[in-house]
Amino acid sequence: MKIRSLIATLVMLAAWPVLAADAVSVNPEMRKLDWLVGEWKGEATVQMGPGPAQTVVQHERVQSKLDGKVLLIEGLGKRKMEDGSAGATVHDALAILSYNPEKKNYRFNTWLADRPSGEAVLEVTGPTTAVWGLETPRGRMRYTVDLTEKGEWLEIGEWSTDGTKWTKFIEMRLSKVK
Fold first, then answer.
1. b (16+ CB within 10 A) / e for 93-124
2. Does 153 map to a domain?
3. pLDDT digits over 9-19, tens only?
4. CATH code at 110?
């Protein structure tokens, strides 16, 4: 009798991943962001205030986690040196993106190494376009992310103090490497 119970338990444990996969399906809203998944590298041009623009060597890694329920996004930017190599870190960020079916919106939590964390609002505005942003004590920031016809990740960051006039402060172009 004990052997039969053991065998039955082992069969149930072996079948559990299949049964669990049927019971929990990925929200179709998260599927809209599948195009972001991968490893991306390229450059960003950053203009913060007066003075010359800065070029940054940028690396973004986007991983689907928990069977597609969340995206884990890691961004690392390093100052581009005169010889083209990557210098000191100027941007180190982590974000977790998920969809809340009850509220029918995306939850986008961000953490930065050198600034406070925040919760951003994200909206999918096209098949390969999303806009996300957040309020700060000094105004609003918004980022438009798009997959170009060339397959590049193009992201434009803008700043506004009044929500009507926007000033671009970053443009990032990345190519998928994995």
1. bebebbbeeeeeebebebeeeeeeeeebebeb
2. yes
3. 555 555 555 44
4. 2.40.128.20
